[in-house]
Every structure is written in C-alpha cells, then in structure tokens.
Amino acid sequence: MSGVHRRNFLTAATAGSLAVPLAGSRSAEAGDESFSNNVPDPLLAGKELPTFKFELEKSEGKVIGGSYGKEATVEQLPISKGIAGVSMRLEPGAMRELHWHATAAEWAFIVEGRVRTTVIDPDGAAETNDFNPGDVWYFPRGHGHMLECLGDRPCHFILIFDNGYFSEFGTFSISDWIGHVPRPLLAKNFGLPESAFEGFPTEEVYFARGKLPPAEPARPLQGWKPPALTHKYELLKRPPNGVFKGGREWRVDSTTFPISRTITGVVFDLEPGGLRELHWHPTADEWQYVIEGELSVTLFGSHGRYRAERLSKGDVGYIPQGYGHSLENVGTKPCRVLIGLNAGVYAKIDLSEWIAGNPLDVLATNFGKPASLFERFPRRDVFIAPNDDAAPARPVGSPDR
Ligand code: MN
Ligand code: MN
C-alpha cells in the first residue's frame, strides 16, 4: 500500500469510527466529547471543592542563567487535569531547544518581548514566525519546534497545553535523543563520519545559549517549504470580540485560526469592579493566568458546593468543564487575564442569557417569586457587567453580610 493510499485508508477508517462508534467502546477518541463526564473523578466528588488556585510565578521552576520555565500541571494544581500551563522567560540569545511534546498540543501568548519559532509538520513543511506581545501560536501535538528570544531584550510568554498531566520538563528534546544514540548509528543515519558527532551534548540542553538570532529569519537547510495552515495569530492586533462598559474580550478559536483545533484562547480586560458574569462552558475546561491586576474567581460545583479564590498577578486558576464560574476585578486598577479552554470551538452559556431564554411564568414558579420581579431582569446576555457602586459581591454565609 503506497503512503498516499495508506493515509486515505486511515482517514476513511477514522471517519467511519466517528460516524458509527463500535458498540461497547465509546470513547473520547470516537468523538463523544461528553464521555469524560461519565468517569467519576474522586477529586471532584468530595463534600468541598478542592482549591483551584496555584501561585505560578511564585514557584521555583527550572532556571538556567537568566531564563526560566515554571509549570502548573496536576502535580502543582491537582484539579487541572485537562490543561497544563507554563510561564517561560528567555534572556537574549537564549533558545528553548528543538523538542516535541508526545502528549499535548502547545498554545502560546506573548506577554513581553519578541520570540521566533520554527515548527515542522508530518508533511515536512516547516514554518518560521516572529511574534510580538499579544500574538499567539499553536503547535499540534507532536510537531517538533523551537522558541528563541529575538532582539536584545528578554521575552516572556505563557504556554498552554491541552493535557493537565503533561509536564514541560518531560518533553522530547533533540539533544537528549542524539546524546543517547551510539555514534555508529548516528553516522549511518546521517551518512556522515562518526567524528561529526564528537563533542555533541550528552544530556538535555533545554535552554541553549548562543548569538542573537539574525534580524530576518535565515533560510532552512531544505529551503522554504511552508505548511498549508499558519501557526501564528495576531490576537491583540485585532479589534476585541466584545466591548462593554465593564471591560473587553478578545477571543481566538479554530473558526478564525484553523490550525488551533484543540484550544481556544481568550483575553479579558476588566475595569475595576468589572465582572465576567456567572457562566459555564459545556465543552471545555478553563485555565486562567492573571497578567495584571486582582481577580476574584468563583466556582460552583453542584451539591451546594461553592468556592471563591483571589487571584493576583502571576497566579493560575482552573475551572473544570461544565462548572459554573465568574471573574471579577476586585482591584483598583484595570485587570488583564489570559484564558485557555481545551476545545477548538468556543462555547459558553451565561446565566443572564439562560434566564432571558425563559418566560416569566417559569421563572416565577422556579423561584417562588412574583412574575413582575423578572420583568426587571436583562432581556439579553450581559457577558461583562460594569461596576455599579454596590459593595463587592460576598459569598453566601459570609459573616460580613
Ligand atoms: Mn514546546
Ligand atoms: Mn469561563
């Protein structure tokens, strides 16, 4: 069977399994996104909700020279089973070496500085891109890539992986691999004398350090061979998806950035007192990173379980799929939060729009209140509510209430 035919055969087989799941073997692989809800998760089955906050920037991480990587996986934040994240800083001349991730796709947002990446795909197509603050990249699972700081100032970016069990320090690095293959095998592989591999690193380099990269990317050894889909998206260069009195939202998913099939990214700018209203995501977990400001995040987990956490700059929050939540700027300055959802198509249901989707008599019966009260409720989605001079929301049962 030729390569092309084999690929077509596999595609057809995959399509078939999507349409007709095998009896008794329904799995997430078969395209049933709700499957994971059927697996009881002991961590979320207790009387209380576990913490959903981790102080990422206060953690130690891996430091080499002036570069670091700090991670939040299930190890640091046990609730975050669906998504892991990394904060990475590279000093000028530093490169996160050529590597791939066996078990996760990588999505990134540039906070500061400039970054150059190269990425290879299974067709041998390679793309080199330069990124500025507010830009995003997406590398599908297993595609080999490198990241390097551009220019003479450091860069800082946030990486989001669609697997909470994925560790940035368990990646497949090129130096680690080549350093463990016997020289005769390397010589045969590349058609070179064994001496060509003398002095190669024998352990993982992780952060390589060298000269500043050229201002313009140099031609790859194979020449330019760009992929069909780009890995780069200039998120904050575009107008926001929504502008409200209480804040703004930018969003990118596969509908505008087709290669990003497993991750949606969102940036919220919330004014002081601004509230991303009570809502949930039917198809995705949510991973949060505070770029600037002070946030109160609330979580509702059924069975009367409710929890609030205060997130400051550099902290991470996590909301399991389907759990109710809200984000409120409780500081005195504007707040910016980066959000990653592990779905390629964004979906949410806001509490205000749910209520607006019901008639007065249903609402009156549900709450045992007169229908006239619900006349005063919003007729459409609030999404981001402004500060209204009222006292900040307190949890039910708070002694201050
Ligand atoms: Mn990577
Ligand atoms: Mn959300």
Task: Give a description of the structure.
The chain has 401 residues and is mainly beta. The protein has two domains: 181 residues, Jelly Rolls (Sandwich); 142 residues, Jelly Rolls, CATH 2.60.120. The chain is built from six helices and 26 strands. The strands form four sheets. Strands 1-22-19-24-17-16-15 form a seven-stranded antiparallel β-sheet, with no helix packed on it. Strands 2-3-4-11-6-9-14 form a seven-stranded antiparallel β-sheet, with no helix packed on it. Strands 5, 7, 8, 10, 12 and 13 form a six-stranded antiparallel β-sheet that branches. Strand 15 and strand 16 form a beta hairpin. It is elongated and about 85 Å long. The termini are far apart. The N terminus and C terminus are likely disordered. The structure holds manganese (II) ion (2 copies). The site of one manganese (II) ion (MN) has 4 residues, from loops. The site of one manganese (II) ion has 4 residues, from loops.
Summarize the structure.
By secondary structure, the protein is mainly β.
> Could you give the distance between the termini?
72 Å
Structural class of the secondary structure composition?
mainly beta
CATH class label of the largest domain: Mainly Beta
Q: What about the largest sheet? A: 7 strands, antiparallel
The largest sheet has its strands arranged as: 1-22-19-24-17-16-15
| Fourth-level CATH superfamily of the largest domain | Jelly Rolls
Overall morphology = elongated
List low-confidence stretches: 1-30, 394-401
Task: Write down the CATH topology of the largest domain.
Answer: Jelly Rolls
Strand content: 25-35%
Radius of gyration: 24 Å
Summed up, the helix count is: 6
The overall average pLDDT, rounded, is 90
Structural domains: how many: 2
CATH architecture title of the largest domain: Sandwich
